[in-house]
TrEMBL record:
Naturally occurring in which organism (per UniProt): Photobacterium proteolyticum
NCBIfam families hit by this protein: PRK15111.1
Gene Ontology CC entries for this record: plasma membrane
Residues spanning the membrane: 28-53, 98-121, 133-154, 160-180, 222-240, 260-282
Domain of life of the source: Bacteria
Main location: membrane
Keyword Cell inner membrane part of the UniProt annotation: yes
Single biological process term from Gene Ontology: transmembrane transport
Name of protein: Peptide ABC transporter permease
Subcellular location: Cell inner membrane; Cell membrane
Similarity-based family: Belongs to the binding-protein-dependent transport system permease family. OppBC subfamily.
Membrane topology, from the record: Multi-pass membrane protein
Keywords: Cell inner membrane, Cell membrane, Membrane, Transmembrane, Transmembrane helix, Transport
Length: 295
Protein backbone atom coordinates (compact mmCIF):
# COMPACT_ATOMS: atom_id res chain seq x y z
CA UNK A 1 0.00 0.00 0.00
CA UNK A 2 2.83 2.35 0.89
CA UNK A 3 4.61 1.58 -2.40
CA UNK A 4 1.45 2.45 -4.38
CA UNK A 5 1.21 5.80 -2.62
CA UNK A 6 4.84 6.55 -3.35
CA UNK A 7 4.29 5.60 -7.01
CA UNK A 8 1.28 7.90 -7.28
CA UNK A 9 3.19 10.77 -5.70
CA UNK A 10 6.11 10.30 -8.08
CA UNK A 11 3.99 9.72 -11.19
CA UNK A 12 5.16 11.94 -14.03
CA UNK A 13 2.28 13.70 -15.85
CA UNK A 14 1.85 12.90 -19.52
CA UNK A 15 2.16 15.45 -22.31
CA UNK A 16 -1.63 15.84 -22.46
CA UNK A 17 -1.89 16.33 -18.68
CA UNK A 18 0.82 18.99 -18.76
CA UNK A 19 -0.90 20.69 -21.70
CA UNK A 20 -4.23 20.75 -19.86
CA UNK A 21 -2.61 22.14 -16.73
CA UNK A 22 -1.00 24.89 -18.78
CA UNK A 23 -4.27 25.60 -20.57
CA UNK A 24 -6.21 25.86 -17.30
CA UNK A 25 -3.67 28.37 -16.07
CA UNK A 26 -4.49 30.70 -18.99
CA UNK A 27 -7.58 32.64 -17.89
CA UNK A 28 -8.15 34.17 -21.32
CA UNK A 29 -8.01 30.77 -23.01
CA UNK A 30 -10.43 29.32 -20.43
CA UNK A 31 -12.82 32.19 -21.10
CA UNK A 32 -12.61 31.37 -24.80
CA UNK A 33 -13.25 27.68 -24.06
CA UNK A 34 -16.40 28.44 -22.04
CA UNK A 35 -17.62 30.74 -24.83
CA UNK A 36 -16.89 28.01 -27.39
CA UNK A 37 -18.90 25.51 -25.34
CA UNK A 38 -21.72 28.05 -25.22
CA UNK A 39 -21.66 28.39 -29.02
CA UNK A 40 -21.67 24.60 -29.42
CA UNK A 41 -24.65 24.24 -27.07
CA UNK A 42 -26.57 26.95 -28.93
CA UNK A 43 -25.68 25.33 -32.26
CA UNK A 44 -26.98 21.93 -31.18
CA UNK A 45 -30.11 23.19 -29.44
CA UNK A 46 -31.06 26.24 -31.51
CA UNK A 47 -34.31 24.73 -32.81
CA UNK A 48 -35.46 24.07 -29.24
CA UNK A 49 -34.56 27.38 -27.58
CA UNK A 50 -35.66 29.96 -30.17
CA UNK A 51 -38.68 31.90 -28.82
CA UNK A 52 -40.26 32.35 -32.27
CA UNK A 53 -40.08 30.81 -35.71
CA UNK A 54 -37.24 32.54 -37.59
CA UNK A 55 -39.38 33.60 -40.56
CA UNK A 56 -42.60 34.35 -38.70
CA UNK A 57 -43.83 37.95 -38.44
CA UNK A 58 -44.39 38.25 -34.70
CA UNK A 59 -44.02 41.96 -33.89
CA UNK A 60 -44.02 45.48 -35.21
CA UNK A 61 -41.64 46.39 -38.01
CA UNK A 62 -38.19 47.55 -36.89
CA UNK A 63 -38.90 47.39 -33.17
CA UNK A 64 -35.74 48.45 -31.26
CA UNK A 65 -33.98 46.11 -28.80
CA UNK A 66 -35.34 45.78 -25.27
CA UNK A 67 -32.76 48.15 -23.74
CA UNK A 68 -34.05 50.99 -25.93
CA UNK A 69 -36.83 53.12 -24.39
CA UNK A 70 -39.04 52.21 -27.36
CA UNK A 71 -38.20 48.49 -27.16
CA UNK A 72 -40.09 45.63 -25.57
CA UNK A 73 -38.72 42.89 -23.35
CA UNK A 74 -40.63 40.30 -25.38
CA UNK A 75 -38.28 40.98 -28.32
CA UNK A 76 -34.89 41.19 -26.64
CA UNK A 77 -32.92 42.11 -29.79
CA UNK A 78 -35.84 43.81 -31.51
CA UNK A 79 -37.34 42.96 -34.90
CA UNK A 80 -36.31 43.46 -38.51
CA UNK A 81 -38.05 45.21 -41.39
CA UNK A 82 -40.49 42.29 -41.75
CA UNK A 83 -41.34 42.06 -38.04
CA UNK A 84 -39.28 38.90 -37.45
CA UNK A 85 -37.62 38.35 -34.08
CA UNK A 86 -33.88 39.02 -34.48
CA UNK A 87 -32.89 36.94 -31.44
CA UNK A 88 -34.54 33.84 -32.91
CA UNK A 89 -32.87 34.41 -36.25
CA UNK A 90 -29.44 34.93 -34.66
CA UNK A 91 -29.76 31.77 -32.58
CA UNK A 92 -30.75 29.70 -35.61
CA UNK A 93 -28.05 31.38 -37.66
CA UNK A 94 -25.47 29.87 -35.30
CA UNK A 95 -26.10 26.54 -37.00
CA UNK A 96 -25.83 27.99 -40.50
CA UNK A 97 -22.63 29.99 -39.94
CA UNK A 98 -20.68 28.66 -36.97
CA UNK A 99 -21.94 25.07 -37.11
CA UNK A 100 -21.35 24.62 -40.83
CA UNK A 101 -17.93 26.31 -40.56
CA UNK A 102 -16.95 23.86 -37.83
CA UNK A 103 -18.05 20.85 -39.90
CA UNK A 104 -16.28 22.12 -43.02
CA UNK A 105 -13.03 22.77 -41.14
CA UNK A 106 -13.07 19.33 -39.49
CA UNK A 107 -13.85 17.57 -42.79
CA UNK A 108 -11.10 19.41 -44.64
CA UNK A 109 -8.65 18.78 -41.80
CA UNK A 110 -9.12 15.00 -42.01
CA UNK A 111 -8.40 14.91 -45.73
CA UNK A 112 -5.65 17.52 -45.51
CA UNK A 113 -3.84 15.76 -42.66
CA UNK A 114 -3.94 12.37 -44.39
CA UNK A 115 -2.67 13.68 -47.72
CA UNK A 116 -0.20 16.08 -46.08
CA UNK A 117 1.31 13.32 -43.93
CA UNK A 118 1.60 10.94 -46.87
CA UNK A 119 3.24 13.63 -49.00
CA UNK A 120 5.56 14.76 -46.21
CA UNK A 121 6.80 11.23 -45.61
CA UNK A 122 7.72 10.76 -49.27
CA UNK A 123 10.59 12.27 -51.21
CA UNK A 124 11.60 12.83 -54.77
CA UNK A 125 9.52 13.78 -57.81
CA UNK A 126 6.08 13.11 -56.31
CA UNK A 127 6.74 15.32 -53.32
CA UNK A 128 8.16 18.11 -55.48
CA UNK A 129 5.22 17.92 -57.92
CA UNK A 130 2.67 18.18 -55.09
CA UNK A 131 4.58 21.10 -53.62
CA UNK A 132 4.36 23.09 -56.88
CA UNK A 133 0.65 22.24 -57.32
CA UNK A 134 -0.10 23.49 -53.81
CA UNK A 135 1.87 26.70 -54.43
CA UNK A 136 -0.28 27.34 -57.50
CA UNK A 137 -3.60 26.68 -55.75
CA UNK A 138 -2.68 28.67 -52.64
CA UNK A 139 -1.82 31.69 -54.75
CA UNK A 140 -5.60 32.12 -55.17
CA UNK A 141 -7.35 33.50 -52.03
CA UNK A 142 -9.81 31.04 -50.50
CA UNK A 143 -12.75 33.43 -50.85
CA UNK A 144 -11.98 34.03 -54.54
CA UNK A 145 -11.66 30.29 -55.12
CA UNK A 146 -15.01 29.76 -53.37
CA UNK A 147 -16.61 32.45 -55.53
CA UNK A 148 -15.29 30.75 -58.68
CA UNK A 149 -16.77 27.42 -57.60
CA UNK A 150 -20.11 29.01 -56.65
CA UNK A 151 -20.21 30.92 -59.95
CA UNK A 152 -19.84 27.59 -61.77
CA UNK A 153 -22.22 25.55 -59.60
CA UNK A 154 -24.71 28.27 -58.73
CA UNK A 155 -25.61 29.95 -55.43
CA UNK A 156 -26.99 28.01 -52.49
CA UNK A 157 -25.99 26.73 -49.05
CA UNK A 158 -24.83 23.31 -50.24
CA UNK A 159 -22.72 24.77 -53.04
CA UNK A 160 -20.94 27.29 -50.81
CA UNK A 161 -20.17 24.60 -48.26
CA UNK A 162 -18.63 22.46 -50.98
CA UNK A 163 -16.76 25.46 -52.39
CA UNK A 164 -15.25 26.48 -49.04
CA UNK A 165 -14.41 22.86 -48.24
CA UNK A 166 -12.49 22.54 -51.50
CA UNK A 167 -10.74 25.84 -50.84
CA UNK A 168 -9.59 24.80 -47.35
CA UNK A 169 -8.18 21.38 -48.22
CA UNK A 170 -5.04 22.71 -50.02
CA UNK A 171 -4.25 24.92 -47.01
CA UNK A 172 -4.29 21.91 -44.71
CA UNK A 173 -2.25 19.80 -47.09
CA UNK A 174 0.38 22.50 -47.42
CA UNK A 175 0.66 23.19 -43.68
CA UNK A 176 0.86 19.52 -42.67
CA UNK A 177 3.17 18.66 -45.56
CA UNK A 178 5.60 21.40 -44.53
CA UNK A 179 5.48 20.43 -40.84
CA UNK A 180 6.00 16.71 -41.52
CA UNK A 181 8.71 17.34 -44.12
CA UNK A 182 10.67 19.56 -41.70
CA UNK A 183 10.30 17.00 -38.92
CA UNK A 184 11.47 14.11 -41.12
CA UNK A 185 14.71 15.95 -41.86
CA UNK A 186 15.68 16.20 -38.19
CA UNK A 187 18.53 14.15 -36.75
CA UNK A 188 16.48 12.11 -34.29
CA UNK A 189 14.24 10.81 -37.11
CA UNK A 190 17.28 9.88 -39.19
CA UNK A 191 18.78 8.08 -36.19
CA UNK A 192 15.51 6.23 -35.57
CA UNK A 193 15.43 5.09 -39.20
CA UNK A 194 18.97 3.76 -38.88
CA UNK A 195 17.84 1.78 -35.83
CA UNK A 196 15.18 0.09 -37.97
CA UNK A 197 12.05 2.11 -37.07
CA UNK A 198 9.38 1.98 -39.79
CA UNK A 199 7.35 4.93 -41.05
CA UNK A 200 4.24 4.09 -39.03
CA UNK A 201 6.19 3.94 -35.77
CA UNK A 202 7.93 7.24 -36.53
CA UNK A 203 4.68 8.90 -37.52
CA UNK A 204 2.68 7.81 -34.47
CA UNK A 205 5.34 8.16 -31.78
CA UNK A 206 7.57 10.97 -33.02
CA UNK A 207 6.19 13.08 -35.85
CA UNK A 208 2.51 13.58 -34.97
CA UNK A 209 3.16 14.62 -31.34
CA UNK A 210 5.64 17.22 -32.58
CA UNK A 211 3.34 18.75 -35.23
CA UNK A 212 0.30 19.18 -32.98
CA UNK A 213 1.00 22.91 -32.87
CA UNK A 214 0.86 23.11 -36.67
CA UNK A 215 -2.39 21.12 -36.74
CA UNK A 216 -3.93 23.33 -34.05
CA UNK A 217 -2.89 26.53 -35.82
CA UNK A 218 -4.25 25.38 -39.16
CA UNK A 219 -7.53 24.10 -37.69
CA UNK A 220 -8.08 27.39 -35.87
CA UNK A 221 -7.31 29.34 -39.02
CA UNK A 222 -9.59 27.09 -41.09
CA UNK A 223 -12.58 27.55 -38.77
CA UNK A 224 -12.11 31.33 -38.78
CA UNK A 225 -11.76 31.42 -42.57
CA UNK A 226 -14.84 29.22 -42.99
CA UNK A 227 -16.95 31.48 -40.76
CA UNK A 228 -15.85 34.61 -42.62
CA UNK A 229 -16.23 33.02 -46.07
CA UNK A 230 -19.72 31.66 -45.35
CA UNK A 231 -20.77 35.07 -44.04
CA UNK A 232 -19.10 36.92 -46.94
CA UNK A 233 -20.75 34.75 -49.58
CA UNK A 234 -24.10 35.11 -47.83
CA UNK A 235 -23.62 38.88 -47.71
CA UNK A 236 -22.84 38.95 -51.45
CA UNK A 237 -25.95 36.90 -52.24
CA UNK A 238 -23.94 33.92 -53.47
CA UNK A 239 -24.56 31.75 -50.43
CA UNK A 240 -27.64 31.35 -48.27
CA UNK A 241 -30.64 32.98 -49.92
CA UNK A 242 -33.45 34.99 -48.33
CA UNK A 243 -35.23 34.39 -46.01
CA UNK A 244 -32.32 32.42 -44.50
CA UNK A 245 -31.15 33.43 -41.01
CA UNK A 246 -27.47 32.91 -41.85
CA UNK A 247 -25.52 35.80 -40.32
CA UNK A 248 -23.96 37.04 -43.57
CA UNK A 249 -27.32 36.90 -45.36
CA UNK A 250 -28.88 38.85 -42.48
CA UNK A 251 -26.19 41.51 -42.93
CA UNK A 252 -26.81 41.69 -46.66
CA UNK A 253 -30.59 41.96 -46.24
CA UNK A 254 -30.29 44.75 -43.64
CA UNK A 255 -27.41 46.83 -44.99
CA UNK A 256 -29.81 49.47 -46.35
CA UNK A 257 -31.27 49.91 -42.84
CA UNK A 258 -27.97 50.75 -41.15
CA UNK A 259 -29.02 54.35 -40.41
CA UNK A 260 -32.71 53.68 -39.79
CA UNK A 261 -32.33 50.50 -37.68
CA UNK A 262 -28.61 49.95 -36.93
CA UNK A 263 -29.28 46.97 -34.64
CA UNK A 264 -30.35 44.87 -37.66
CA UNK A 265 -26.78 45.20 -39.01
CA UNK A 266 -24.62 45.43 -35.90
CA UNK A 267 -26.05 42.35 -34.14
CA UNK A 268 -25.23 39.85 -36.94
CA UNK A 269 -21.85 41.55 -37.36
CA UNK A 270 -21.12 41.21 -33.65
CA UNK A 271 -22.13 37.53 -33.79
CA UNK A 272 -19.60 36.90 -36.58
CA UNK A 273 -16.89 38.83 -34.74
CA UNK A 274 -17.59 37.04 -31.45
CA UNK A 275 -17.43 33.56 -32.99
CA UNK A 276 -14.14 34.26 -34.80
CA UNK A 277 -12.64 35.82 -31.65
CA UNK A 278 -13.64 32.83 -29.52
CA UNK A 279 -12.14 30.34 -31.98
CA UNK A 280 -8.86 32.25 -32.06
CA UNK A 281 -8.71 32.54 -28.26
CA UNK A 282 -9.10 28.78 -27.90
CA UNK A 283 -6.63 28.07 -30.71
CA UNK A 284 -3.98 30.38 -29.29
CA UNK A 285 -4.45 28.89 -25.83
CA UNK A 286 -4.04 25.38 -27.22
CA UNK A 287 -0.90 26.39 -29.10
CA UNK A 288 0.70 27.86 -26.00
CA UNK A 289 -0.35 24.90 -23.83
CA UNK A 290 1.00 22.31 -26.28
CA UNK A 291 4.29 24.14 -26.70
CA UNK A 292 4.69 24.45 -22.92
CA UNK A 293 3.79 20.77 -22.49
CA UNK A 294 6.42 19.72 -25.02
CA UNK A 295 9.08 21.93 -23.46
Amino acid sequence: MLSNNIYQEQKIPTQWERAWQNYRGNSLAMFGLWCLLFLLIVTLSAHFIIPYAPNQQVGELLMPPSWDPSGHVEFFFGTDDLGRDILSRLLLGTQLTFGYALLIALASSVIGIVIGVMAGMTRGLKSSFLNHILDTVLSIPSLLLAIIVVAYMGPGEVNILLAIWLALIPRFIRAIYTAVHNEVEKDYIIAARLDGANDFYLLYNSILPNILTAITNELTRAISIAILDIAALGFLGLGAQAPSSEWGAMLGDSIELIYLAPWTVTLPGLAITFSVLVVNLVGEGLRQAINAGID
